[in-house]
Amino acid sequence: MKIxxxxxxSLLVLGSMQLGAKENQFEYKGPKAYDFDRSAPQVYIFNxxxxxxxxxxxxxxxxxxxxxxxxxxxxxxxVKINLMNLLSTTPKFEQYDFSVFYFVMSxxxxxxxxxxxxxxxxxxLKKKIKNMNISYNKVTLTRSNS
Length: 146
Hints:
Blueprint: H1 2-18, E1 21-28, E2 42-47, E3 52-56, H2 63-66, H3 76-86, E4 98-105, H4 113-128, E5 134-141
Parallel strand pairs: 1-5, 4-5
Antiparallel strand pairs: 2-3, 2-4
């Protein structure tokens, strides 16, 4: 099962790279393991300097407009630190024009219609925004084992 999961993840990453974007997937088992809400969808967009330029804790259909933001949000450094504590690898913000981190619910928690809608918006972004180097990072909220 682990080999299949790794193979599927590898295929997702390779497929995404062919589109000119990089996609990573992470699992988050909380409930208080990290300083992020266990709610979804959540979207965070960082610029190449690692500054948070967009944050939303609900379905946000206007993500394309968020890439035009130039000023970092006041909680930029805190969110970045919390995110780095969550991920198994340190994001390489400087390698991309933008890094998008989006949180969704796994099916073992239940159906999440807003998550599905947000993922569709992100899927459309991948097709429409081809003139920028963007890293897409999907964080899946799973049931806690604790």
